[in-house]
UniProtKB/TrEMBL annotation, chain A:
GO terms for cellular component: plasma membrane. Transmembrane (T) component of an energy-coupling factor (ECF) ABC-transporter complex. Unlike classic ABC transporters this ECF transporter provides the energy necessary to transport a number of different substrates. The gene is ecfT. Belongs to the energy-coupling factor EcfT family. It is found in: Cell membrane. This is Energy-coupling factor transporter transmembrane protein EcfT.
Automatic annotation (TrEMBL), chain B:
One of its GO terms (cellular component) is ATP-binding cassette (ABC) transporter complex. One of its GO terms (molecular function) is ATP hydrolysis activity. This is Energy-coupling factor transport system ATP-binding protein. InterPro entries: AAA+_ATPase, ABC_transporter-like_ATP-bd, ABC_transporter-like_CS, ABC_transpr_CbiO/EcfA_su, ECF_ABC_transporter_ATP-bd, EcfA_1, P-loop_NTPase.
Length: 265, 277
């Protein structure tokens, strides 16, 4: 029952966006986010929308996947909408008890909700088109220059890799422990939230103990294979930048510049 | 014969609690010859696993010496050379695979050694071919069976071009099919590539094909010799609480019943030949 959880939300496809260097995709996502927060009026959203629309089209990821990503954040979006609509001062259109709905409030609410939706879709495009391994490699390479100021780039990447590696193993283990406890009469499904949370204790304790033992054995196995941190380490897969990567990044920068010019000029 | 691993009066102590010290290994001496297939048997707590971990400096001796390829394991400067020349495969296939893709995992050791990326690719391919797993190179390790995972672990070790592989009960968690896969791979590496094998196991059938068998008990070597010499001592092994290979057991019982039959029969073929004379 736990097996059908997919790791991350990577959507495998052979598209132009998928082929881009992960470093470029991560940086572009950052630039996109900055551009999104620079925008101050509806008209400027056009640039963002065109850019995002083109990226989604090129990525070959079905649009329904993007919408799916929005679902868990529906509450936050509604909340943002609600707060903005009631808390903005201005020309009163309608009174709802002590709360005023203002013209400015409506426009502000729509504006903020749009920003949030664009933010989520934009960032999920990164994880949808980049496999976890590529993402890890990209993060490691991008953080490398910051090693001198004490950012443990290699260690962070190694932690991510190991976490990804053990997700299926631990899920399988959880399933096994659950069945073992159910065979001895444990009940995970009935009762209120508190009762159900309590029933998870006999599941979590063995799971943690086994995870620690695994960690111990893995550390031993890694040492046996000469692991000694990031120093002098090479990688089999090298990231290399192609023309397409430069083009993609220039386009993204262009969007930011356009938004900046419209805002300040 | 050149010595691959030389263990001299090895003592390993660990603290059980504040006062009490336990000797897991008690003055063990053992030589592993180059190119040899050595099987180490003994039941749980006999110290066989502890000894294995001394062979590539994962544990360091409390007393005595361990030399791997002439290098002292207590000398920290040769630590990485030792671990590169004496690779190790562990019991649990899940807990020794580091990466999320098979070929990445095989490359892990080489990346640690700082090998050039092109050379890594080449050696990963060779290693995966040697264990017959090349078609799985892009798969996720969680999709493989236990025997396949263990072969990946072996590939990860042989990619580092070791002279010796120490296998610490690699088949203990596998089904019979997986066990056969792993044993066939190990035997092939020994015969074709001339890699020295130290195989620790509690399956007696796996020790039958070894060049030499060592039996451990309470931190000491109690029996040593060719499989035929060791397994013919059925009573000694039984006293130690160990099994003998099924066919040897049969031969032993037949002898007890008064049938005149050789006592060092290890395989079914030998048994058939002997009975049909």
């Amino acid at each position: 029952m736990l097996r059908d959880i997919t790791i991350g939300q990577y959507y495998p496809a052979a598209s132009a966006i998928h082929r881009l260097d992960p470093r470029v995709k991560i940086l572009s996502t950052f630039v996109y986010m900055i551009a999104l927060f620079v925008v101050k009026n509806f008209v400027d959203y056009t640039y963002i929308l065109v850019f995002l629309g083109a990226s989604i089209f090129l990525s070959k990821v079905p649009f329904s996947y993007m919408i799916k990503g929005l679902k868990p954040l529906f509450l936050i979006i509604t909340l943002t909408f609600g707060i903005n609509i009631f808390m903005t001062k201005g020309e009163v259109l309608y009174q709802l008890g002590p709360l005023d709905i203002t013209k400015e409030g409506i426009s502000q609410a729509v504006f903020m909700a749009t920003r949030l939706i664009l933010l989520i879709i934009g960032t999920s495009l990164l994880t949808l088109t980049t496999s976890p391994i590529n993402l890890t490699d990209g993060i490691e390479k991008l953080l490398n220059p910051f090693k001198k100021v004490g950012v443990p780039a290699h260690e962070l990447a190694m932690m991510m890799t190991i976490a990804l590696r053990f997700i299926p193993t631990l899920l399988e283990e959880t399933d096994k422990i659950m069945k073992a406890q159910m065979a001895r009469g444990a009940d995970f499904e009935s009762g209120n939230i508190l009762k159900r949370a309590k029933s998870l204790v006999p599941l979590l304790v063995p799971l943690f103990i086994s995870a620690f033992r695994r960690a111990d054995e893995l550390a031993m196995a890694m040492e046996a294979r000469c692991y000694r941190g990031g120093e002098n380490r090479t990688r089999m897969r090298e990231l290399s930048l192609h023309t397409r990567d430069f083009i993609a990044f220039i386009v993204t920068i262009f969007v930011l510049v356009a938004v900046l010019v419209n805002r300040f000029a | 014969m050149e010595k691959m691993i030389e263990i001299i009066d090895l003592v390993y102590e660990y603290r059980k609690n504040e006062e009490e010290k336990v000797k897991a290994l008690n003055e063990v001496s053992l030589n592993v010859k180059k190119g040899e297939f050595l099987a180490v048997i003994g039941h749980n707590g006999s110290g066989k696993s502890t000894m294995a971990k001394h062979m590539n400096a994962l544990l360091l001796p409390s007393g005595g010496k361990v030399y791997v390829h002439g290098l002292d394991t207590l000398d920290e400067s040769s630590l990485w050379n030792i671990r590169q020349s004496a690779g190790m495969v562990f019991q649990n296939p899940d807990n020794q695979i580091v990466a999320t893709i098979v070929e990445e995992d095989v490359a892990f050791g080489l990346e640690n050694l700082g090998v050039d990326p092109k050379e890594i690719r080449k050696r990963v391919k060779e290693a995966l071919e040697a264990v017959g797993m090349i078609e799985f190179s892009k798969k996720g390790p969680h999709l493989l069976s236990g025997g396949q995972k263990q072969r990946i672990a072996i590939a990860g070790v042989i990619a580092m071009k070791p002279e010796c592989i120490i296998l610490d009960e690699p088949t203990a968690m596998l089904d019979p099919v997986g066990r056969k896969e792993v044993m066939d791979t190990v035997k092939k590496l020994n015969k074709e590539e001339g890699i020295t094998i130290v195989h620790i196991t509690h399956f007696m059938d796996e020790a039958v094909d070894a060049d030499r068998v060592v039996v451990m008990e309470e931190g000491n070597v109690v029996l040593e010799g060719k499989p035929k010499e060791v397994f013919s001592q059925v009573e000694v092994l039984k006293d130690l609480g160990l099994d003998v290979p099924q066919v040897t057991e049969l031969a032993y019982r037949l002898r007890k019943e008064g049938i005149n039959i050789k006592e060092d029969i290890l395989t079914v073929d030998e048994m058939v030949k002997c009975l049909c004379q």
